[in-house]
Amino acid sequence: MVSHGLPVRGVDVPIVKLLPRNEREISKTRRQRIEASIRAVGLIEPLLVYPHGDDYEILDGCLRYRILLDFGVENVPCLLADEREGFTANRMVNQLSPAQESRMLRNSLEELDESTIASALGMSGIAHRLHAGLLKKLHPTVTKAFEAAKITLRCTRELAHVKPERQAEILALMESCNDYSITFARGMILKTQVAKRAKTNGTKTPWTQADDQKNDLLKRLREAEQQQDFYSGLYRQYTTNLLKLVIYVRSLLANERVRAYLETHHGELVKVFEQIVSSTER
């Protein structure tokens, strides 16, 4: 973290002269991590204090003060502020991005082993914070963009679903449109040909699931088209048969002898025939 703008100078202050201010509750896990860090590598971030008579008011670092007090530390490295601000130093720092944190950890590995760094951070390991597995899958230009915080960790993970050369193509499109959103990246990934997708070793990804959904939809559309063709065929056959029936019925009714016979022996049938002919003439 990098401080901005506040004039400070370093001074060692007896812990008995420190006065806590604006203490706040934090989780047990966070306290344990800070304790582990101080125990492993010492106090990395000095307390920020302001003179208060013969004592010093803690502007930032009350938790570190409590931990050092429990450790029995007598003198504490502090940054002496020239002004008593109404806010803490934590609000004047740039928080590390995931990419910056990963790069910082990799640089630390040049001097310290992984277990020491993990102990200082209060973790069982730091492999998941290094993003080593992810970085191996990335095109160099994508890695550079990630480490420069141009694209987010989530966006980078999405790009890893396609092959490196396709990643570079998508990144170039993002740069040309000045759109580094995850939505844009996902849209480009969805349009990516299967041949340019990264191997998943059978693992389902959102993009293979999207392909499955698309294939399922296409299958349903094909089935619907087949049903439509089937019913359309039935309808065409029905209308053809109906037309043939009408022609046949007309010919029967037009024949005087046949009509007279039907009226004598099958009167109801003649009425049906007449209804058929009448309905087709409307």
Describe this entry's structure for a reader:
With 282 residues, the protein is of the alpha/beta class. It is 58% helix and 10% strand. The protein is built from 13 helices and five strands. The protein has helices at 28-41, 62-71, 98-108, 114-121, 127-130, 132-136, 140-147, 153-159, 164-177, 182-190, 206-254, 256-265, 267-280; strands at residues 8-14, 18-19, 47-52, 55-60, 75-81. It has a five-stranded mixed β-sheet with strand order 1-5-3-4-2, with helices on one face. The chain is rod-shaped, with a radius of gyration of 40 Å.
Structure characteristics:
Conserved hypothetical protein from pyrococcus furiosus pfu- 392566-001, ParB domain; alpha/beta; 282 residues; five-stranded mixed β-sheet; single chain; 5 strands; 13 helices; Arc Repressor Mutant, subunit A
**Architecture per CATH nomenclature, i.e. the level-2 architecture of the largest domain:** Orthogonal Bundle
Average pLDDT confidence is: 78
* Proportion of strand residues: 5-15%
Q: How large is the count of helical segments?
A: 13
The gyration radius over C-alpha positions equals 40 Å
CATH top level assignment of the largest domain: Mainly Alpha
Subunit organisation of the chains: single chain
Measure the end-to-end span.
88 Å
Order of helices and strands: EEHEEHEHHHHHHHHHHH
Strand order, largest beta sheet: 1-5-3-4-2
Helical coverage, percent range: 55-70%
CATH topology of the largest domain: Arc Repressor Mutant, subunit A
Quick structural overview:
Helix content is 58%, strand content 10%. With 282 residues, the protein is an alpha/beta fold. Helix 12 packs across helix 13 (267-280).
